[in-house]
Amino acid sequence: MIHSGVGRLMYWGCYRNQHVGALEEVRGRLNGTGYLNILRENLDYIDFTNQDYIFQQDNAPIDKTVVVTNWFQDIGIQVINWPHQSPDMNLIEHIWSLIKNKLDTMFITSKAMHREKVQQVWNNINKLSEWLLELMPQRMMAEINNHGGATRY
Q: 0.70 cut: is pTM over it?
């Protein structure tokens, strides 16, 4: 969810191979079926049968619905098993934070302008996301040393 002076808008986005992928505005309340539709629309082009891919999500309740869990299993997508809503280890959460921080420096007067600025920032986030990925080993050690608790990241 990204807040601004014009209200709250919610987005779904993905990250792959040091690059951001699709960005979708989520309208209305999202349930398991709606989340599954977003996944299908945005991930069908990826061949997850390659063992190099592991899907990461934040394990929010919607991620664990039966329809979503069954879809991942049915098409053979390996999903990383990790603590519930662990933002320190989830690169996409850091990307959302970078976007929010960038938007906070802008004067946004409408939801349409908000959508446009989010898309612009999203499209230019790749260099920053490379930096986030490079920090992953330090993040992992901090998480281990803090026994799964919050870290400075």
A: yes
